[in-house]
UniProtKB/TrEMBL annotation:
Domain of life, source organism: Bacteria
Entry annotated with the keyword Methyltransferase: no
Family to which this protein belongs: Belongs to the outer membrane factor (OMF) (TC 1.B.17) family.
NCBIfam families: outer_NodT (TIGR01845)
Stated name of the protein: RND efflux system, outer membrane lipoprotein, NodT family
Native source species: Denitratisoma oestradiolicum
InterPro entries hit by this protein: MdtP/NodT-like (IPR010131), OMP_efflux (IPR003423)
This protein's UniProt keywords: Lipoprotein, Membrane, Palmitate, Signal, Transmembrane, Transmembrane beta strand
GO CC annotation terms, alphabetical: plasma membrane
Main localisation: membrane
GO molecular function per UniProt: efflux transmembrane transporter activity
Length: 475
């Protein structure tokens, strides 16, 4: 009994030689409720909650099909899914360390015995065959939580990888939706620019006639030809932009550039509003997969730090074996050849040149980095929501003003046509009014695209309808 007490006291004393009490993380995760966002988000006109397939609200079956195809075969999603499988495999490896290990082993040795060692003749100097067939057991008693904390860290990383896959899905869907809206805008601009160019060419022809008749001067002709050439250049530039967006969509789909050429003219019908979470920013942490994933990375770093701290304490392994051992093969499986054993093995860290302290300090540095990244992610998420809400409000206000401008230019164009029919206005005046009306239509088309873009940004900023599972929500 005295020897056992002495051993326990010795272990405790020697363990105290290595301490980690002065090691701790420096950075802490920000409490989301402390980030003021109420004023920026107050009075939002947003009315309907985002759903997982939020892009269907735009009412374009072709867009639905493109995003569904991309979610099946995009390289970016395949990469995220591979990372998820890797994280799950690592969690499985960590889980295996918490369980006993059992192995079946056979060992056979042919050896000559020394005449001058443990065994005298006739064994000494003879050649024998030894055989061992046994089940060997080993189990590390996880008193200090090394394996338990490692497993928890790996599980947190696996959940984070799943959320990052969700985030990759969201980024892919928003990328396709953005490009699709841009394609719609450019094709509309291309059509209106063609109308504007047609009107410009007619105006140029009329100016040429007026100069020939001595009504206008040469500078007027130069201005008309310059404007017409500028419209031709602009139309060509729009055509190039259309090709670029088509190629971009093809790349997002994981296909060759020809895939983008087959995309028909978009038929977007509406850009519905979305709802903000009822409590911000606290609820944001459960709606944004990237925010939740980064929070899980912080938790994983904390678990790994705790696991590394266990290296300051004794490592206790329990081993056992059960089987047969004999000289020669004939008697190997006889009852008299049975062997069995059980015993602990204790490894005590006494001096490692500061290795363990350095590794714990490194783990805390990893925690600090993860916490800082989480804080940055949370702050960025709130900024993106505020920006998206602001963009939506601005587009609504601009559309109201643009609607008035478009109405007035349309009225002016119709009035000019009537005056031309009555012989009051010239054809050139009518063309000028038409050009003004087309220019307002172009601005209206741009604002329509901006409204769709704002809806897309709101969907992305709010997590794209992501809803955390009960397990994830607890973390």
């Amino acid at each position: 009994m005295k020897s056992r007490l002495f051993s326990v006291a010795l272990v405790a004393a020697l363990t105290g030689c290595a301490s980690h009490s002065d090691l701790a993380p420096i950075t802490r995760p920000t409490d989301g409720s402390t980030l003021a966002a109420g004023q920026s988000l107050a009075g939002s006109p947003i009315t309907a909650a985002p759903v997982t397939d939020w892009w269907r609200e735009f009412g374009d079956p072709q867009l639905d099909a493109l995003i569904e195809d991309a979610l099946k075969s995009s390289p970016s999603l395949q990469l995220a899914e591979a990372r998820l499988r890797l994280a799950m495999a690592q969690a499985g490896v960590a889980d295996s360390t918490t369980l006993p290990r059992v192995s079946g082993n056979y060992q056979g040795n042919r050896e000559r015995m020394s005449e001058h060692f443990l065994y005298p003749p006739p064994f000494g100097g003879s050649t024998i065959t030894t055989n061992r067939l046994a089940l060997d057991f080993s189990y590390e008693l996880d008193f200090w939580g090394r394996h338990r904390e490692t497993l928890r860290g790996a599980q947190s990383e696996a959940r984070a990888a799943e959320l990052e896959r969700q985030s990759a899905r969201l980024m892919l869907a928003t990328g396709i939706a953005r490009s699709y809206v841009e394609l719609d805008r450019l094709l509309g601009q291309q059509e209106l620019s063609a109308q504007l160019l047609k009107a410009g060419r007619e105006a140029t022809s009329l100016v040429d006639q007026r100069v020939a008749a001595g009504i206008d001067n040469e500078p007027a002709r130069n201005r008309a030809h310059s404007q017409s050439a500028a419209l031709e250049s602009e139309l060509a530039a729009i055509g190039e932009q259309v090709l670029r967006v088509r190629h971009q969509l093809a790349a997002l789909l994981g296909a060759g550039p020809d895939r983008g050429l087959s995309i028909a003219r978009p038929r977007l019908t509406q850009a519905g509003a979305l709802a903000l979470p009822s409590v911000l920013p606290a609820e944001l942490m459960g709606r944004r997969p990237d925010v939740v994933a980064q929070r899980l990375r912080v938790q994983a770093a904390e678990h790994y730090a705790e696991a590394t701290k266990a290296d300051f304490y004794p490592n206790v392994n329990l081993s056992a074996f059960l089987g047969f051992q004999a000289i020669g093969a004939d008697a190997l499986l006889k009852s008299g050849s049975r062997i069995a054993g059980l015993g602990p093995a204790v490894s005590l860290p006494i001096y490692a040149g500061g290795n363990t302290r350095a590794r714990v300090a490194g783990r805390y540095a990893e925690y600090d980095a993860a916490a800082a990244q989480y804080n940055a992610t949370l702050s960025t998420a709130l900024r993106e929501i505020a920006d998206a809400v602001g963009a939506w409000r601005t587009v609504e206000e601009r559309e109201k003003a643009q609607g008035i401008a478009a109405t007035e230019t349309g009225k002016a164009f119709e009035a000019s046509r009537r005056r031309h029919t009555a012989g009051i206005d010239s054809r050139l005046t009518v063309i000028t009014s038409q050009a003004d009306a087309i220019a307002e239509q172009r601005r209206a088309a741009d604002l329509r695209a901006q409204r769709f873009a704002a809806a897309i940004e709101l969907a992305r900023a709010l997590g794209g309808g992501y809803a955390p599972s009960a397990v994830t929500a607890q973390h």
